[in-house]
Known about the structure:
Structural class: mainly alpha
Order of helices and strands: HHHHEHHHHHEHH
Shape: globular
Strand content: under 5%
Strand order of the largest sheet: 1-2
Number of domains: 1
Distance between the termini: 51 Å
Amino acid sequence: MIYKxxxxxxxxxxxxxxxxxxxxxxGSLISFLSYIPSPKVDxxxxxxxxxxxxxxxxxxxxxxxxxxxxxxxxxxxxxxLGSLGLQVxxxxxxxxxxxxxxxxxxxxxxxxxxxxxWHIDTSGTALWTVFTAVHCGAWCIIYIGAxxxxxxxxxxxxxxxxxxxxxxxxxxxxxxxLQRLYLHMRHPSFTGFCILLWIYPFMSLDRVLLAGLWTxxxxxxxxxxxxxxxxxxxxxxxxxxxxxxx
Length: 246
């Protein structure tokens, strides 16, 4: 009995930490992706090896993130957690690991502002307002998408709550069509992230690397097919008909 209580407390601590850590990480990510830095750099003071070193560090950080983000979804990792009795906290542990990797990426990222594809001067109020509004809109799209995909379940809170109440995994209450869609659509908004990555006034070399690799990774992981599309259209028609009826 004592073991069961202690294990339940452990699950609550893991899921609670993951939930809080995820929101802290999102705040850091918003600053990292949407903050517009000053592009003024004295190129003559930069050592010749700086660009190569920065590219190596940044590429390694991005590969580490992509490896973690994919490897922890594989059956081998799920079986390892199951052998430890932590399968209920699988999503929370995944969220915590992702948050740690993102914090490391943000902390150790090496800017390369001396090489850029374009630089749009945003010192004027109008252009700064436009870029700010675009990024705010993109973050709103991502947030709304996360809510629609069940934010509590995405962060692992719901799984632990259901387990403590003696209920099965919350995903079992969803239709097979929706479960299939979740397997093919791993994050809430491909469009929102593409807007954040590419609609940016100062496209330095490190930003191009970040935007290019993350966009490619999302395209590879985004496996929504015709069946998923038809399912979403059907759900939209159902909701529209209900709204029209009321």
